[in-house]
Amino acid sequence: MDILRIEGGRPLHGSLRVPGSKNASLAILSSVVLAQDPVVLHNVPNVRDTRVMSDLLELFGARVEWNGDSISIDCSEIHPAKLDPEVARQIRTSFYLLGPLLARLGHAAIPAPGGCRIGARPVDFHLNGLGRLGAVIDLDMGEYVGRTDGLKGADLYLDFPSAGATQHLMATATMAEGVTVIHNGAIEPEVVVLAEFLNELGARIEGAGTGIITVTGVSRLHGGSFRIPSDRLQAGTYMLAGAITRGEVTVNGILPESQSALTSKLKESGAKVVEGNDWIRVSSDRRLDAINVKTMPYPGFPTDMQQPMAAVLTLADGVSVVEETIYESRIGHVPELNRMGAKIRLEGRSAVITGVEHLKGANLEASDLRAGAALSLAALAAEGESYIRNVHFIDRGYQDFESQLRSLGAVIERIPASESPILEHSEVRP
Ligand code: EPU
Question: Where are the alpha helices (DSSP H) in 245-384?
Fold first, then answer.
């Protein structure tokens, strides 16, 4: 597997533009099978997860054509398929195909989902909701097998505002007969984007972006074209790169209001944040102050930025507490940051971080996507060289990661698997 080599200790300066949102794209790609005519999506990030998802669509008979950052998808002739569980498990959103396929075909089977290992990540809200919409679903040999004689609108309530369950049920309900109301739905920007996309195809969804979403079923969805907005999580990562390296990074082409939790916390820690209509500049010329961070559903502090933010706080002045409330084990970054000289202690779901003045380069292993981002940020700020293994996790959600960082002055290179040096994981490099 490829390795990233990063020479740290250089302040990053410059501006960049991030590609389209991975999570919005995945939600859209899993619901595109509802459309009976061709759909064209623009600004789709070319990352591993979107490529896996487009391969899965082809297995169901979709005709998919990539053209730069646009994809044309024709689902007019979709059919049932047996998915390889290993392939389906690579991404969680493979499971979100179940409801839309049931709506189109009346029956479908999807292996139990996977995704980054950051907690148990059950699918009970999805299954309960699909059941209430009139699907009968059985788990057979690790595969969810569903059928329906016709989906019917229903009143749904989510015990927690799950982004995935809201997206999956909202998409499925577009073709259920009658009215579906989703109470306590997620209000993440990616839910709103999915609703806009589906409405573009003729769906009737109201209230996306509030806790109560009403979907009035229609008999068919037609084709259309749609532009995916930029990725707030890639944007946030580069903003944090400006802060941790004591540089100045401007991220263009984004929606500043979707970053408000992150920018508020950065300001609280003493970083300088300037915002325009569609850009944010983050800079710092001093050691940041320790702060407390607690992850919450949107518009709270995003769990996806928890690990990168923890990396930034390893170098802050004082003791920070970072509490993860969404996933029970999004902590793979902790032992690795400690290998770099960070002082992080886990207490239940909180990381208690005693800031240090310097981190040292080390041989590191990414345990998941955002842990990989966190380690990269730490490595950019650390003294000396770091090597990060399991880059394939970073490739799930960051497009052109090294070249984006290089454009800001980072010294970072990808060493292909065939040329990778044999590295002792625990060895701390000088
Ligand atoms: N949950 C349940 N039952 C369910 C569904 C969710 O208990 O049926 C729980 C989860 O276990 C978790 C909480 O609800 O504790 C929130 O999970 P949610 O369903 O919101 O997460 P998700 O839809 O699986 C998406 C993103 C994640 C992101 C979360 C939170 C995608 C493909 N994934 O996951 O992104 O962390 O929302 O915003 O959209 C990432 O990009 O690195 C990533 C993991």
Answer: 260-268, 306-313, 333-339, 369-381
Cα(160) to centroid of ligand 1, in Å?
Answer: 10
Q: Work out the mean pLDDT of the chain and round it to a whole number.
A: 95
Considering only CA atoms, which residue is closest to atom 14 of ligand 1?
A: 162
Task: Average the pLDDT over each of 22-31, 84-93, 128-137, 337-346 and give the range with the smallest value.
Answer: 84-93
Size of the chain in residues: 430
Supply the pLDDT for residue 421.
67
127 alpha carbon to ligand 1 midpoint, in Å?
A: 15
Burial class of residue 365 in the structure, from the number of CB atoms within 10 Å of its CB (0-12 exposed, 13-18 middle, 19+ buried): buried
Phi, psi of 373 (to 5 degrees): -65, -40
> H or E stretch including 40?
strand 39-42
Select from 93, 98, 116, 160 the residue to mutate for testing ligand 1; criterion: most ligand atoms less than 8 Å from CB. 160
Tokens in use for 289? Answer: 């102050």
- What percentage of residues in the chain have a pLDDT greater than 90? 90
116 is catalytic: yes
Q: What percent of the chain has pLDDT over 70?
A: 97
Contact of 128 with 168, CB cutoff 8 Å: no
Enclosing H/E stretch for 213: strand 212-216
| Average pLDDT estimate for 103-108 | 97
Give the distance between the most distant pair of CA atoms in the chain: 65
CA distance 99 to 168: 7
- The pair of structure tokens assigned to 112 is 């139990």
What distance in angstroms lies between residue 421's CA and the mean position of ligand 1's atoms? 35
**What letter does residue 327 receive in the DSSP assignment?**
-
Two structure tokens written together for 127: 């299954």
- Separation in Å, CA 293 to CA 60, 99, 320, 383: 42, 35, 8, 26
DSSP E strands: which ranges in 43-147?
A: 63-67, 70-74, 107-111, 136-140, 143-147
341: confidence class by pLDDT, cuts 50, 70, 90: very high
Distances in whole angstroms, Cα of residue 7 to Cα of each of 248, 259, 353: 18, 29, 24
What pLDDT digit, counting tens, does each position of 391-400 carry? 999 999 999 9
